[in-house]
Amino acid sequence: MGDIAALAALALSAFTSATLLPGTSEAALVGLLALGETAAWLAILVATVANVAGSAVNWGIGRYLVRFRDHPRFPVSRERYARTEALYRRWGVASLLLSWTPIVGDPLTVVAGVMRTPLLLFLPIVVLAKGGRYVAVAALAEGLL
């Protein structure tokens, strides 16, 4: 697979991994690095940018969905919404440092949109969290950790 095609596949995997769709971006990153044809920094950059873009889509979905919170078909009960809002208000944007984690991270980026976290505050925190994860994965794959 050519460098561009491999990076595009990594970007697609990283993007879908950041949304509520299933994805395996860490495995894609490790696989790409194992081929030895792509610089680690470039693979990390592509994975981070695509994963953060997916998180920004989640944030946008949250911003859009909040308009319908009083609708009977809103996917979250009023009680659960109130609990989630209280937790997010308690921990604030610092909780976005967990956006890299499985299971919790993707919904957290939706919650950030629902709670109207400014995008310019959201993005640097998510870049730090998700970029840090890919640096750690790449370092492990390269035997540096």
TrEMBL record:
Residues 22-137 form the VTT domain. The chain crosses the membrane at residues 43-66. Coiled coil: none annotated. Keywords: Membrane, Transmembrane, Transmembrane helix. Signal peptide: none annotated. This is Membrane protein.
